[in-house]
Design a protein that fits this description.
Strand content: under 5%
Radius of gyration: 24 Å
Shape: elongated
CATH class of the largest domain: Mainly Alpha
Number of helices: 6
Order of helices and strands: HHEEHHHH
CATH topology of the largest domain: Multidrug-efflux Transporter Regulator, Chain: A, Domain 2
Helix content: over 70%
Largest sheet: 2 strands, antiparallel
Number of domains: 2
Distance between the termini: 63 Å
CATH architecture of the largest domain: Orthogonal Bundle
Structural class: mainly alpha
Number of strands: 2
Length: 137
């Protein structure tokens, strides 16, 4: 299939597919050049790109993605090694989640403070004083 058909099928841009090819994530099993130099993508490319999207959805970097695909292609890791990697990835995501939760707490505080400035400036001032007192600890 041509690149536009593949892009449409998977909801990716042509640029993204070419980038993956340039980075070596798609190889001659996935794409072939025709005599007119057009790319022709196999059905294996569809599965490969779905796998790439799955790894990206869990926050894999390009380097992690390359390593995971190489392991997938060569069965380079044992099941226990893959489980260890999954546990590590889960810990990484938990830390990011905690960071996002702190960000949301701060934004919620800011929103509440700004709303109080409009509706109850005295209460907003008290809220600000409480925050200053707690942040100096």
């Amino acid at each position: 299939m041509k690149i536009q058909e593949l892009a449409d099928k998977l909801g990716l841009s042509i640029h993204t597919i070419r980038f993956y090819e340039k980075e070596g994530l798609l190889d001659n099993r996935h794409v072939r050049r025709e005599s007119n130099n057009y790319r022709n993508y196999s059905e294996e490319a569809v599965g490969r790109l779905k796998l790439i999207k799955k790894f990206q959805s869990i926050g894999c970097s390009l380097a992690e993605l390359k390593e995971a695909l190489q392991d997938h292609d060569t069965n380079g890791r044992t099941n226990l090694q893959i489980i260890d990697w999954i546990i590590g990835k889960k810990k990484e995501i938990e830390l990011k989640k905690q960071e996002y939760d702190r960000m949301l707490d701060t934004l919620n505080w800011m929103q509440e403070y700004r709303t109080l400035l409009i509706n109850d400036p005295q209460k907003a001032q008290e809220m600000l004083q409480t925050w200053h007192a707690s942040s100096s600890d």
